[in-house]
C-alpha cells in the first residue's frame, strides 16, 4: 500500500487571523502513528492545524471524501500550530517522508514557491482542463502568480467590523448602519465610550494593518507587492499606512480606543463583556461571536478614510500545496482530494460548519447555506465584502518570504503608539527593519 502524506504548514511567528482558533490548546497527535489501513486503497495521512470545532468539521470532510471513492483513504492527523507543523515539515522536505500536500496559510505563499519542493496545481488544471472559474476569483488570486495557480485555496477568511448593536442603540446610533469611513468610526466610538466601555479596538496584529492599508489601495512592498518581481523595499509607511496609524493614535489619545493586546481571546472577551463596543475580527469568527455574545451582534465592512476609494480586502486563511518529491499516483490522489474539497457541496458544508468562505461560490446556493443565512444574516455581509473587492496588486496581497519578521515589526510599531510614539517615525522604523530583513533574505538566496 502506497502512502500519501498530506501536511499542514505555514511560516509565521503569528497565525493568520482566520486561523486564530487553532491556537487553542489541543494535544498534538504523534506524527509517527500509523493510520488505519483499508485494503486496496492508497493510504493518505493528512497533517493539519485545525483544532476544536474546526477539527471536527475537517474530519467530517475527510470522512465524506473517503466514502466517495475507492482509491484513497485519508487519515487526518493534527500537527499542532502552523509553526510546529512547519518545523516538522522542514525536517522531511524533499525526502520520501515529505508530505504530499501541505496546508499553508496565506503569508507562507512566497516561502513555499521559493522552497523548490512544491508541485504547482496549475499542471493538473492544465492537464485535465479543469475549469477554475468555478472558484472565487478574489480568493484564488492570492495563490496565483504570473498566471500560475500554485495551490488550492482551502480555509479562507477576511477581516470585518463587528459591533454591539445594543450598545449602538443605547448611544443613539443606528444599529443597522455600521461605520463605513474613519470619521464615522471615530464619531461612533466617541458616542459609545461611556464608563468602562470604550468605542473601538484593533488587535495588535499585523494582519489587520495590512488589510486596512490594502482597503485603501495601498501596497505593503514594492514591485507591485512583489507580484511583478522580487520585492526589495517596504512601502507600507506611505500615505495609506500613515492613515491607519494616525487613526489608532488619535482614538487612543481621545480615550475611545481599547488596547486589547495581541491575544485573540482577550480581544473577543473584551467585546463580549462590553469593554469595547466595536472590534475588527476574522469573518471566520462571526458565527461564534453571535452565538456567544449576550447582545445582538452586527457586522460591517472594513472602514476606509473618507477620501479613499474602497478597494476591498485581502484573502486570509490557508491553501493546500502539493509536494514535488512524490510519485505520479500520489500527486493524482492529492489532486482528487483537492477537487473534492473545493466542490460546491463540500464547500457548502465547510462554510456552515466553520464560517470560512466557500471557495466555490455555487456553494452559497446549496440549501444548507440558504438555511444558515436565514439564521445568521450577518454571514452574507462577509461574503458581499469579498465579492465587491477589486482585483489588483493591493488586494492580491504581498509576496515576501520574510513576512513573519515584517509583521512583528509592524506590531512593535503599533504598540509604540500607545507610548506616545510619532506615527510616521514608528512606521519608518518598521519599514527600515523590514528592508534589512529583505536584504538579508536576498543575499541568502544569491539575489
UniProtKB/TrEMBL annotation:
SUPFAM superfamilies (alphabetical) = Periplasmic binding protein-like II
Q: Where is the signal peptide?
A: 1-22
> Could you tell me what this protein is called?
Glycerol-3-phosphate ABC transporter substrate-binding protein
Places the protein is found: Cell envelope
Q: Which family is it part of?
A: Belongs to the bacterial solute-binding protein 1 family.
Tell me the organism: Jeotgalibacillus malaysiensis
CDD domains given for it?
PBP2_UgpB
Among Pfam families, the record links this protein to: SBP_bac_8
According to the UniProt record, one GO cellular component term is: cell envelope
**InterPro entries in the cross-refs:** Bact_solute-bd_prot1 (IPR050490), SBP (IPR006059)
Keyword tags: Signal, Transport
Amino acid at each position: 500500500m502506497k502512502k500519501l502524506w498530506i501536511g499542514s504548514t505555514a511560516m509565521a511567528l503569528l497565525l493568520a487571523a482566520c486561523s486564530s482558533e487553532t491556537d487553542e490548546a489541543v494535544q498534538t497527535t504523534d506524527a509517527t502513528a500509523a493510520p488505519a489501513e483499508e485494503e486496496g486503497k492508497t493510504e493518505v495521512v493528512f497533517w493539519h492545524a485545525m483544532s476544536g470545532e474546526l477539527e471536527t468539521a475537517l474530519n467530517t470532510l475527510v470522512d465524506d471524501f473517503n466514502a466517495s471513492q475507492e482509491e484513497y483513504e485519508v487519515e487526518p492527523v493534527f500537527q499542532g500550530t502552523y509553526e510546529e507543523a512547519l518545523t516538522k515539515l522542514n525536517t522531511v522536505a524533499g525526502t520520501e517522508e515529505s508530505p504530499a500536500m501541505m496546508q499553508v496559510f496565506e503569508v507562507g505563499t512566497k516561502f513555499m514557491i521559493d522552497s523548490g519542493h512544491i508541485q504547482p496545481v496549475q499542471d493538473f488544471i492544465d492537464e485535465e482542463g479543469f475549469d477554475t472559474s468555478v472558484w472565487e476569483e478574489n480568493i484564488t488570486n492570492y495563490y496565483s502568480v504570473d498566471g500560475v495557480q500554485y495551490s488550492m485555496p482551502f480555509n479562507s477568511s477576511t477581516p470585518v467590523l463587528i459591533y454591539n448593536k445594543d450598545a449602538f442603540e443605547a448611544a443613539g446610533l443606528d444599529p443597522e448602519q455600521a461605520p463605513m469611513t474613519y470619521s464615522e468610526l471615530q464619531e461612533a466610538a466617541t458616542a459609545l465610550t461611556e464608563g468602562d466601555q470604550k468605542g473601538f479596538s484593533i488587535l495588535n496584529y499585523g494582519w489587520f494593518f495590512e488589510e486596512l492599508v490594502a482597503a485603501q489601495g495601498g501596497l505593503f512592498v514594492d514591485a507591485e507587492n512583489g507580484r511583478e518581481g522580487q520585492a526589495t523595499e517596504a512601502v507600507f509607511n506611505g500615505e495609506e499606512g500613515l492613515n491607519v496609524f494616525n487613526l489608532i493614535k488619535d482614538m487612543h489619545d481621545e480615550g475611545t480606543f481599547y488596547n486589547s493586546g495581541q491575544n485573540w481571546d482577550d480581544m473577543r472577551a473584551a467585546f463580549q463583556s462590553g469593554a469595547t463596543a466595536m472590534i475588527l475580527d476574522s469573518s471566520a469568527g462571526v458565527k461564534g461571536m453571535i452565538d456567544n455574545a449576550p447582545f445582538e451582534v452586527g457586522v460591517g465592512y472594513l472602514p476606509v478614510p473618507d477620501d479613499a476609494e474602497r478597494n476591498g480586502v485581502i484573502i486570509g486563511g490557508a491553501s493546500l500545496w502539493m509536494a514535488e518529491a512524490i510519485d505520479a499516483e500520489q500527486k493524482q490522489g492529492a489532486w482528487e482530494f483537492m477537487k473534492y474539497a473545493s466542490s460546491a457541496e463540500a464547500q457548502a458544508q465547510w462554510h456552515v460548519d466553520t464560517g470560512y468562505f466557500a471557495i466555490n461560490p455555487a456553494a452559497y446556493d446549496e440549501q444548507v447555506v440558504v438555511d444558515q443565512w436565514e439564521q445568521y444574516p450577518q454571514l452574507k455581509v462577509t461574503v458581499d465584502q469579498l465579492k465587491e473587492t477589486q482585483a489588483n496588486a493591493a488586494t492580491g496581497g504581498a509576496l515576501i518570504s520574510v513576512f513573519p519578521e515584517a509583521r512583528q515589526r509592524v506590531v512593535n510599531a503599533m504598540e509604540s503608539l500607545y507610548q506616545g510614539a510619532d506615527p510616521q517615525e514608528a512606521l519608518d522604523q518598521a519599514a527600515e527593519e523590514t528592508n534589512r530583513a529583505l536584504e538579508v533574505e536576498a543575499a541568502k538566496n544569491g539575489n
